[in-house]
Amino acid sequence: MINVPKGTKDILPSESYKWQFIEQTARDVAKAFNVSEIRTPTFEHTEVFSRGVGESTDIVNKEMYTFNDKGGRSITLKPEGTAGVARAFVENGLVSSALPVKVYYLTQCFRYERPQAGRLREFHQFGIEMLGSNAPNIDAETILLAKTLLDKLGVTGYTLYINSIGCKECRAKYHAALKEYLSENLDKLCNLCKDRYVKNPMRILDCKNPDCKEITKGAPKILDYICDDCKNHFEKVKSLLTIAGVPFEVDAGIVRGLDYYTKTVFEFVSNNIGAQGTICGGGRYDGLISQLGGADVPGVGFALGIERLLLLMENIGVDIPNFNKVKLYLAPMGDSESEKAFELATALRTQGIICEFDHMNRGIKAQFKYADKIGAKFVGVIGSSELEKGVIKLKEMATGIETEVAFNDLIEFAVNN
To answer: CB-based contacts of 264: which residues, under 8 Å, 6+ apart?
Structure first.
């Protein structure tokens, strides 16, 4: 038997309705915020991620699925969604369209890391990118969209943490102060953080190594170094979130894991999915478009992992509705009756009513058993007498109540019941 590759998972029909519910809810929330869908390729030129995500990140250093294609070009399966959207924005000249450009994506991503609950090598993200505005109200709107989605899905018990990591200018001052603080313990940092010390010392604050976490406990706080413009931007974001009734906590330790972030960063964190509790994270990235060869266009966005979200919803007992259940199972008792069942099923399906009928030449008792197994709400028996009278005998499976309905009235009955 050939198994699925390590770190991947089949999504079976018994589970796919949960994914559909999340995806449809995400689409509906995005629509309410006037956010349109974008679809980018599954793989990109590696440079998109090395330049966009950042050479010093774990993703680029250790986790990307990169290979040379038959033309000798370095290709990478997308490890996250933002860089590909930024590339599409530049390549397709969207800077000339009505700004801001507000897009969402539902996409597969790929990272080579140790598989664990809610973290796979092939995983799925819902993401939002809003490009073209540097106004703090679009930061607040992006955060509000994420909160709205979580609330619509029935997620509770999470905390929103926000921070500002400043702009390029004020962050340079912070880097200097942070490097001075870390220099005394440089030899005690992990090998990766020793490299980060040179390339991007702020990333050390995001390290999960216990020794590094202990060293950075007393590190200077970025909020003490941000310039007046960044400080005013952050204060406005906080004010707007307060106006919108969004509770939050300021956490000066949040830096996010990707190099492209500037100013506002945020995370929605839950204690119900283990130690890695972040279910949604994002922020502002004002330099990303220019890094990929475009104009100096600001942006803000977030990504939410669907596997982790499903794990959280399961852990807190969210009841996910299954809108794919069979409304009506037609149980014919002979060849002529089977033809009638086919005719009725065709008519019902054209009206969007989920129905099924026998394909296995089962006896009537076995058909009822099958209908119960697939969760059919009603079973309609068609025997020779029903065929002659032009009626169908319906039984509601949950109550046992039986009703006789004319063939011509079956669609109306199914719609109203």
So the answer is: 136, 139, 162, 163, 164, 233, 234, 237, 283, 284, 300
Asked whether residue 112 falls in the same domain as residue 122, the answer is yes
For residues 204 and 120, state if they share a domain: no
Mean pLDDT of the region 173-201: 87
Mean pLDDT score of the chain: 93
Range of the domain at 53: 13-167+226-315
CA pseudo-torsion sign 235, 236, 237, 239:
positive
Residue 317 Rama label (left phi>0; alpha psi -120 to 50; beta): left
Identity of the residue numbered 247: P
For residue 200, which of 256, 162, 250 has the smallest C-alpha distance?
256
* Domain-terminating residue out of 253, 282, 315: 315
Count of structural domains, the chain: 3
The helix/strand/coil state of 45 is strand
pTM value? 0.91
What is the layout of strands, in order, in the sheet containing 43-45? 43-45, 74-77, 66-68
Q: Is residue 180 part of a domain?
A: yes
Write down which residue in 290, 315, 340 finishes a domain. Answer: 315
Q: How do residues 281-309 score in pLDDT, each as one tens digit?
A: 999 999 899 989 999 999 999 999 999 99
Do 160 and 278 lie in a common domain? yes
The CA–CA distances, whole Å, from 103 to 23, 35, 300 equal: 15, 5, 11
Most confident of 204-218, 255-269, 354-368: 354-368
Pairing of strands 299-305, 328-332: unpaired
Tens digits of residue pLDDT in 124-163: 999 999 999 999 999 999 999 999 999 999 999 999 999 9
CA quadruple 88, 94, 99, 105: dihedral sign: negative
